[in-house]
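Why do we care about 3D structure at all? Because function follows from shape, and shape follows, mostly, from sequence. That is the central idea of this module. The next example makes it concrete: a single protein chain, its amino acid sequence, and then its structure expressed as tokens.
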Amino acid sequence: MKSKLLLTGLIAAVLSACGGGGDGGSTTGAATGGTGGNGGTVQTTKITGTAAIGAAIPNALVEVKCKAGSAKATTNINGFFTADIANLQTPCVLSAPAPDGTTLHSLVETGASGSILTANISPLTELVLAALAQGETTKFFQQFDANAQLRLSPAQLTAAIAAIRQVFDQRIDLTGIDPVKGQLLAAIGGVGGNAMDKMLDQLAALLTAANIKLADLSGAMAANAGAAAIQTVLKPASATCNGLRHGVYFLAGQGGSGYANFDSTGNTYAQLDGQADWLALPT
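And the structure:
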């Protein structure tokens, strides 16, 4: 029942609307190493990654906030960035603007260690952070207080990525893929990207066919709507009725009732028992 109620809310919301490599970008707000003013050694950590949407996001301002430390960096032509942060303490959250004017987010989980940490920024990492935040990602980034930081443990990150994989089951194969730390080589200048970049293309095509925006999907992940409910919303939508999606429906009327399969491509349906021909739905 919970999934049905969440699905109803998701459809209502939709109806209401009826890589890597090369030199890193510039970085500001961080020390480059050496000795602190009090005589202590300054440890500098690099956070690197690629910002992409299926194509590189060049010349974008990347903002990083950590439990201790912050920085800003600018992506290069490949979408690659490096941010240097003095005496960094994890966890961290990142943000970067997408070409459509929205903002994408990512993270570094609690306990991540090393002199170089990886955090890609993409629509997939936006979904991962939404699942972790259990709320609106921009607000989560802006506040990023102690309570927010508690949500970014390694175990929680693993669970969030697993939830994303389940949502895209049989649509986008994310088996063995880590959207946050995996290698992301973005397409640029007509040259295609790597496997993860192609998955971003698949995600964009999926959202277009379903006639929903990334923010809708991010909100569903944040609401913990469940894979089955979200998968229904991701089905291709009718061009004339956004809430009507490809799949099986129960139809009832004066002439009788029964189950029918709706084809959103042609706005047609057929009874599953095969006794009726394809019939055009009214537009």
